[in-house]
Amino acid sequence: MEPEINMAELGEKIVEILKTIYDPEIPVDIYELGLIYDVFINEDREVKILMTLTSPNCPVAESLPLEVEDKVKSFSMIKDAEVEITFDPPWTQELMSDVAKLELGML
């Protein structure tokens, strides 16, 4: 029998993983940049991440979602992970956290 999993803690661990992934053009992690719109976790520990890119023509449009998927999947408590890209709503600088804005000298 598998141990009971605290979904809130699991969500926090996933956020920690997302904070290790950086946009190659902006020296801020994708979570603080506001590229992650939502993280869904079901009882089977399958994760779906809804994210965007800074623009539809982003040079890492192919590789960044795969990096996110691979890093989340590599966490032992996750059975599977899938990333869905959306541009609705489109990313704007207003989606960045204060941490990201401070890092970029915008505060």
From TrEMBL:
Region forming the signal peptide: none
InterPro entries per the UniProt record, alphabetical: Fe-S_Maturation_MIP18, FSCA_dom_sf, MIP18-like
Span of domain MIP18 family-like: 12-85
Lineage: superkingdom: Bacteria
Entries under PANTHER family matching the protein: FE-S PROTEIN MATURATION AUXILIARY FACTOR YITW
Protein name: DUF59 domain-containing protein
Organism: Aequorivita ciconiae
